[in-house]
Structures are given as structure tokens and as C-alpha cells.
Amino acid sequence: MMHSRRTIRMAGGKVTSFWSRRLAGFKGVTLLLLTLPPLFWSGNFIVARAMRGAIPPLTLSFSRWVIALLVLLPFAIPALRRQWPLFLPHWRLLLLTSLTGIAGFNTLVYLGLQTTPATNGLLLNSTIPVFICLLGTLSGSLRLGGSQWLGLLISLSGVILIISHGQPLQLLQLAFSRGDLLVLLAMLCWAIYTIALKQLPAELDRLALMTLQIVLGLGMLLPAFAWEQTQDGGVSWSLEVLLGLAYVGVVPSVLAYLLYGACVSRLGPARAGLSVHLIPVFGVLLAVALLGEQLHGFHLLGMLLIVIGLLRR
Asked: EamA domain location, by residue (predicted)?
């Protein structure tokens, strides 16, 4: 209680409370947890889209997690040995998070991106926070206030503004295909993964947890991967494909997942889920930087609305 009244006189006579300084540090960490995963996943969408003709979707998903496992395993083995008994009581949640977050989500996205246009994919991606809030409310695991629902709607309106090029009514003219339904199912998987992830005890080592989820997810993917190898069309190997696999296997698979898990633990599934609305923001910026596309006023306004929605508590 004494600390809450402590003040520190800064240069120039400015008085700053002890807790204000602590809060500033917290906001910096929170900003990284909210922004880095969608930034890394935006790159995943771009790379996956670019490689769709060179590597089949199931092979891409399976290879991605094999690379991630090889990266994580040396660091996770000590924690797995030490905490193995702690994981056993939560085997149902482990299977559920492995199925939805590892085996299901990316595989369905890669399958959907074979046929669905980018505009539809971005629109469907923005349904994740809606699914999280609805499923969490129905299951009783989330209790959202009016401010949080308002933040969700503001953020969602920014996404719609970006993907509709400033003309939201054009979305009514979109036709949805089988690929769209696969992407939509992937978003539902991610919402379930986010809610289930929060139910796992905080004392479980995050590296060990993710490694175990990847092992289980690869086991689930193995039959589909083996089947795809019997079909026509293999991998068209090139330096670009190798670099693309390296990226999706490390950055969005390891770094983004670990940071997102920390974000869920720190902020809760509802607010963490809102961070995926930043994916179209970073997608636009990456397209401008890497593909030479134009940045328009509706992009800037949409980004502003997304940020405002994220900052509401």
C-alpha cells in the first residue's frame, strides 16, 4: 500500500508515481504480445500463398511442424522430463489444443488458400475474436463487459473497412466457396484453441507444453500427410521453397505461438483474440513494402479503428 503513494521527481520537476512507471513497462510488454504474433502470422499467409503451387498444403503443414519440433525439442526436453506428471491430468485439453491449434488450424488454412481469394480469407480471419467471445460466453468461461464488446465491434469495423477497400457494402456481393468454408472452420478451430489454452495451468512450462502439442498434432496429421504423398504432384524444390519452409517452421510456428500463449495467459482469451485483427493491418503494410501495392486513406482509417478497438478494456 505504501508504494501506491510513492512519487519520484524526474528531471524538469515532473512527478511520476511508482506504479505509473511499472504500468508503462507493462504496456510495453503488452504491446509486443499483441502485435508480434499477428505480424509473424501475416508473413505466414504471404509465404503460404506464394508457395501454394510449389508444395501441397498437407505437406506444408506437416513439414512446418516437423521443423518447429526440431527447433524446440533440445530446449524442451529437460522441462518435459521434470513436469511430465503435471501434464497427465490434463490430457483431454492437450489433445484438444493439439487438434485445433496444431493439426487443424494451419492445415485448414492452407487447404482453403488453394481456392479462396485473399479478400475472403481476410474477412473470415476477422471472425476469430467473434468466435472466441461467443464460445467463451456460451461456455461460461468468459464474462465480457459492454466496453469489451464495443472494442470488438470497433476493431471489426476497421478490418471490414480495410478488406472492403473503404466500401463495406461491396462485401454483400462476395461469393463464398468450399475454400471459404475451410478457412471459416480453421477460424473456429483457433477460437477453441484459444479458450482451451487458457484452461491449462500456468505452472506448465510453455516450451514443454508447445512441444508436446506439436508431437500430438504431428501424430494427427501423419495419416493425411501420408495419403497426400500417394497423390500426383510433389514438392517443387528450390531455394525459395526452402527459405519459405524455414520461415513458416520457425517464426509463425514457434515464436508466434509462444508469444500468443503468453498473451492469452496475461490478457485472457478475449483480448488476446482481438490481436488477430492486426493481421490484415500487417498484411496491407507487407503488401505495400514487398509487393509495391498502394496505401490508401481507408487503410489508415481501418488501422486506426483496429488499434482503438484493441486498446479498449
From this structure: 31-163, 178-311
Q: 192 vs 110, 111, 179, 187, CA distance in Å?
A: 19, 19, 20, 9
Q: How far apart (Å, rounded) are the C-alpha atoms in residues 107 and 124? A: 15
Q: What is the mean pLDDT of residues 83-106?
A: 94
Quote the cell numbers at residue 171: 462485401
The answer to whether the beta carbons of residues 197 and 261 sit under 8 Å apart is yes
The contacts of residue 191 (CB under 8 Å, 6+ apart) are: 128, 131, 132, 135, 273
Length of the chain: 313
Which pTM does this prediction carry?
0.76
Can you give the pLDDT at residue 9?
41
Q: What is the pLDDT of residue 19?
A: 32
CA distance 289 to 299: 14
Write down the domain spans for the chain. 57-311
Confidence (pLDDT) at 52: 78
